[in-house]
């Protein structure tokens, strides 16, 4: 069976990620300045769409990454997060684990229709919202480079400064969740760290289990932000 292709249309009649070339072609054929690219993975397609400059994120991922995590620091709270959507977009869920005051708290939730990136962001938001103290330093671990680089490289702050536009003038994706995350991190001593997904890290694996369970659960709610975006 042929491998499924995903077509990301960054500039066209209706930008988005399409699962067939005829659908994508209809958005770019005859459209001046059309920008689009094919991928074998929906996550890569959406990440390419969300990067400040098309293709930048994919090229960066080809570089050798440092998978070493920071050493635990006494008095520092740690948050592990993960999120995803079945068939992206589709039913989604997030999971977060908070290690604070020698206690462990698990948080999870699901949505009827959403995306991988929205659930990755939601996992971070819910984890930070659950902190009992905003004076302690925090290390947040995510396997989403979209999230980690969006914060650590200042992409999200740049989008907000430009009225939620990317550097090329196109609309930033998921501005509602990026705004919530930026507001939550304001004044917080926090670092965002990338952890390689599905590499055996027990807390990352547990977050993945929580996210998948919620994505397949029966008590999901609507993702109002995504619903508005797709109208």
Q: Layout of SSEs?
A:
Blueprint: E1 6-11, E2 16-18, H1 21-28, E3 35-39, H2 42-50, H3 56-61, E4 77-85, E5 90-100, E6 103-114, H4 116-129, E7 138-142, H5 145-152, H6 155-161, H7 175-185, E8 190-194, H8 202-215, H9 224-229
Please summarize what this structure is:
By secondary structure, this protein is an alpha/beta fold. Helix content is 36%, strand content 24%. Strand 4 and strand 5 (90-100) form a beta hairpin.
Q: How does this model look, in words?
A:
There is one protein chain. This protein has a 5-stranded mixed sheet. The protein is built from 9 helices and 8 strands. The two termini are 33 Å apart. 36% of the residues lie in helices and 24% in strands.
Descriptive key words:
24% strand, 231 residues, 36% helix, 9 helices, 8 strands, 5-stranded mixed sheet
Instruction: Tell me what portion of residues adopts beta-strand conformation.
Output: 15-25%
Q: How many helical stretches?
A: 9
Termini separation: 33 Å
Categorize the overall geometry.
globular
Radius of gyration: 18 Å
The average pLDDT is 85
Query: Tally of extended strands?
Result: 8
Structural class, from helix and strand content?
alpha/beta
Write out the strand line-up for the largest beta sheet, numbering strands in chain order: 6-5-4-7-8
């Amino acid at each position: 069976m042929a491998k499924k292709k995903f077509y990301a249309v960054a500039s066209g009649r209706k930008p988005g990620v399409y699962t067939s070339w005829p659908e994508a072609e209809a958005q770019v054929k005859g459209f001046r300045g059309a920008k689009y690219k094919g991928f074998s993975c929906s996550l890569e397609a959406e990440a390419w769409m969300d990067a400040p400059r098309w293709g930048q994120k994919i090229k960066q991922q080809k570089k050798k990454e440092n998978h070493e995590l920071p050493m635990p620091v006494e008095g520092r709270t740690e948050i592990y997060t993960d999120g995803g959507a079945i068939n992206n977009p589709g039913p989604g869920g997030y999971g977060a684990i908070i290690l604070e005051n020698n206690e462990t708290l698990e948080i999870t939730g699901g949505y009827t229709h959403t995306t991988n990136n929205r659930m990755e962001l939601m996992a971070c938001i819910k984890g930070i919202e659950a902190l009992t103290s905003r004076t302690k330093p925090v290390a947040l671990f995510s396997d989403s480079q979209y999230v980690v680089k969006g914060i650590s490289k200042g992409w999200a702050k740049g989008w907000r400064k430009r009225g939620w536009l990317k550097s090329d003038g196109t609309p930033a994706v998921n501005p509602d969740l990026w705004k919530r995350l930026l507001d939550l991190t304001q004044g917080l001593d926090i670092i965002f760290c990338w952890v390689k997904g599905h590499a055996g890290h027990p807390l990352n694996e547990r977050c993945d289990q929580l996210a998948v369970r919620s994505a397949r659960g029966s008590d999901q709610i609507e993702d109002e932000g995504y619903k508005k975006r797709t109208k």
